[in-house]
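Hey L., structure's done. Input below.
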Amino acid sequence: MKLITAIIKPHMLDGVRDALSKSGIKGLTVTEVKGFGRQKGHTEVYRGVEYSVDFVPKVKIEIVTDDEHVASAIASITESARTGEIGDGKIFVSDIGQAIRIRTGESDSAAL
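Output:
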């Protein structure tokens, strides 16, 4: 099992969710986050005053899936979240040792 963590632009979330559903992903967790990478924030003007926005709003998507679905999930996220501009995001893949469904006690793949 793998944990796929994707950091994407907020307005891309609906497209990514739809693409993941079509690729067979059954569930995901979404969190609103802020951060910066190469983008390093940006400046905005509000009421004539320029100020710096150091942290850019993003969305973090977390998916736990079987190893055989990892490649299709990554492809779905990449294709649906890519704009070709800086700040499109990142995808991280980590190993999961065990998963347990609290309601039934099922574990590993059955718990997903």
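The two ends are 10 Å apart (CA to CA). DSSP finds two helices and six strands in the chain.

-- N.
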